[in-house]
Specification:
By secondary structure, the chain is an alpha+beta fold. The protein has one domain: Transposase IS200-like (Alpha-Beta Plaits, 2-Layer Sandwich).
Length: about 220
């Protein structure tokens, strides 16, 4: 029986809403450093490899630099939006070539789990199986990013009482999403906002669309929860 939201073949040029939930709904991101750790792994693969300017013994060895270039996915994958919640992750990603998303997700998730397990001296599963994904049409990307950026506002996570860092009165108050990049309060080079803002009619129209409320009340095929 096919598994819902399990994409087997990601198409070059395709846009996908990707979702991964923690094992048994547990809280993965326990503090700021955990969120930063996950984002650092994304940056590692989506920021272009910089030209070497250091000389002498501090410079990268040629084989290390070659490895960095080979592993880099800045040309293969574009991150259009993200939101990290305590027990799950939402990403909107465009794949530019064959198997870009599969490589990206495997490298980011594996690297994060290894660091996380080392930090907390734990073993075993961290995520609830393979991440899930739904294809998104270009005409839908504005609504999808809106859904992603509103995730913290309309969801309350409880762990021995309310977790105050999870929700806020506005999406701009949440620290672990790409929304501030969209409204110009932050600049993350690896978050590609241009196409969505173009389709939305600019920054102010996008801000108004997101902050006016939750949505149209319909269940869309790309909504994964």
């Amino acid at each position: 029986m096919p598994v819902k939201f399990r994409v087997k073949d990601y198409q070059p040029g395709g846009i996908y809403h990707i979702y991964s939930r923690a094992w048994e709904g547990r809280e993965v991101f326990r503090d700021n450093s955990d969120y930063k750790m996950f984002l650092d792994w994304i940056r590692k693969y989506l920021l272009p490899v910089q030209m070497e300017t250091t000389v002498g013994y501090k410079a990268d060895r040629p084989y290390r630099r070659k490895r960095k270039v080979e592993m880099n996915l800045a040309e293969s994958v574009e991150m259009w939006a993200y939101c990290l919640m305590p027990d799950h992750v939402h990403l909107l990603v465009k794949q530019n070539d064959e198997r870009g998303i599969a490589k990206f997700m495997r490298r980011v998730m594996t690297g994060f789990v290894m660091d996380y397990n080392r930090k907390y001296r734990r073993r075993g599963m961290l995520w609830d199986g393979t991440y899930r994904a739904a294809g998104v049409g270009e005409e839908e990307v504005v609504l999808v990013t809106r859904f992603i950026h509103l995730n913290p506002v309309f969801r309350t996570v409880r762990r021995f009482g309310p977790v105050e860092t999870v929700t806020g009165s506005a999406p701009g108050e949440y620290l672990y999403s790409s929304y501030k990049s969209y409204i110009g309060e932050e600049k993350e080079e690896w978050v590609k906002t241009e196409k969505v803002l173009e389709l939305a009619g600019g920054v102010e129209k996008y801000r108004e669309l997101v902050e006016k409320g939750k949505g149209d009340g319909q269940k869309h095929k790309w909504e994964i929860d």
